[in-house]
Design a protein that fits this description.
heterodimer, A: alpha+beta, three-stranded antiparallel β-sheet, two-stranded antiparallel sheet, B: about 280 residues, mainly beta, four-stranded antiparallel β-sheet, elongated
Chain lengths: ~90, ~280
């Protein structure tokens, strides 16, 4: 099981960074969206520029997401092998 | 003496003779008449060969001066035909369309009609259109294309009943955590029944469709919001209305101040959107 970055772009109109991670064997995907523009107050609706964007460490976020995905997959695969259970993919994408 | 002389024989002879002296304007004009006559004959279903003269003699039985416009909106193509002046004669039209401009792919041909406005309901179809017309339904004009491909668009909610039941839901879990540090003020996760980082199932009628998991960082409204999927990407908005585009699938809601595990439209963490 190997997850890697399939697409990586910043959408200027939506003001966000969008990444799609994909597992090479199963084709499963995990999406990561990071909003970069403004915040709005949920109570009064006041809009202000985001203050934390500059602190974002994209490499760390990517590493963390891939590590979580691979750990989850590795545990599942290990369980199947340990108990000698057939592995299958469910559902379909449309 | 030949009782059925070959059409355009004088012109052909003229062109042949003129080949020796290129530049003859007479031969050029004869050649134009000859070429146009043959082309029009081939395009028509008239079994009689054309006679030399001005253009359109071969298609005299077919109406001329007709224009067509095709529009696409709300999941339907609308073909509008202007018959022009046909001196009160009834005009039949045969509309056909194809996904390729050359009409080499499967072509759908509509039954001939005298109507001048034809609506074809077919959501999400992009097609090239052409028309041919006739006075008697037998002798048809050549095909006239409508131009560029036209998209019918998709059926919008405006065309649906106000309380139409869509019979769809999903099994997504939407959760949010706040204050993770490292520039991450809010992290929203979209996952399935298998837990974090697993895809979820979208149910449309009896069909089950798989959707990917997602992580959304620093959404516009950090405390609470809604998630939708547009078929390619996830979107997070501060209000339900902000994610209710016609083409988007509602996924769920989050509320970092609420107790985890709840559900429902305005639910706490774990909320999912359902329309049954």
């Amino acid at each position: 099981m190997s997850w890697s970055l399939k697409s990586d772009e910043v959408d200027l109109s939506l003001k966000r960074h969008y990444m799609v991670l994909e597992e090479s064997q199963t084709g499963e995907q995990h999406h990561v969206a990071i909003y970069l523009g403004h915040d709005s107050c949920p109570l009064c609706g006041h809009v202000k520029p985001k203050t934390e964007t500059g602190e974002l460490d994209m490499q760390a976020i990517l590493r963390q997401e891939i590590a979580a995905l691979e750990a989850s997959a590795a545990q599942t695969t290990a369980h199947a092998r340990k108990h000698n259970v057939k592995m299958a993919l469910t559902g379909r994408k449309n | 003496m030949d009782s059925n002389p070959m059409p355009f024989a004088p012109q052909i002879e003229n062109v042949r003779a003129a080949l020796a002296k290129i530049g003859s304007s007479t031969a050029t004009e004869d050649f134009r008449i000859l070429a146009e006559g043959l082309v029009q004959w081939q395009a028509s279903s008239n079994p009689n060969p054309p006679a030399p003269g001005n253009s359109a003699q071969a298609t005299q039985a077919a109406p001329a001066g007709i224009s067509m416009n095709v529009m696409g909106a709300n999941g339907a193509h609308t073909v509008q035909i202007d018959n022009g002046n046909q001196n009160g004669r009834q005009v039949w039209h045969e509309i056909s369309y194809s996904s390729t401009k050359s009409f080499t792919s499967p072509v759908t041909t509509m039954p001939p009609t005298t109507a001048t406005q034809i609506m074809i309901p077919q959501p999400g179809v992009t097609a090239f259109f052409r028309r041919r017309s006739s006075f008697d339904g037998k002798s048809w004009s050549s095909y006239a294309a409508a131009g560029a491909a036209v998209s019918s668009g998709k059926l919008s909610s405006a065309a649906s009943a106000a309380a139409l039941a869509l019979n769809q839901t999903n099994y997504a879990n939407v959760n949010a955590t706040a204050g993770q540090g490292g520039g991450i003020s809010t992290m929203v996760t979209v996952s399935g029944a298998g837990g974090p980082y697993t895809g979820y199932i979208r149910q449309v009628g009896s069909r089950q469709l798989k959707r990917s998991s997602a992580t959304i960082i620093n959404p516009v409204s950090s405390a609470k919001g809604f998630v939708a999927y547009d078929g390619n990407q996830y979107h997070a908005g501060p209000s339900l209305a902000s994610v209710l585009n016609d083409d988007w699938e509602p996924v769920g809601a989050w509320n970092v101040s609420g107790a985890p595990g709840g559900g429902g439209l305005e639910g706490n963490n774990g909320g999912r959107l359902t329309a049954v």
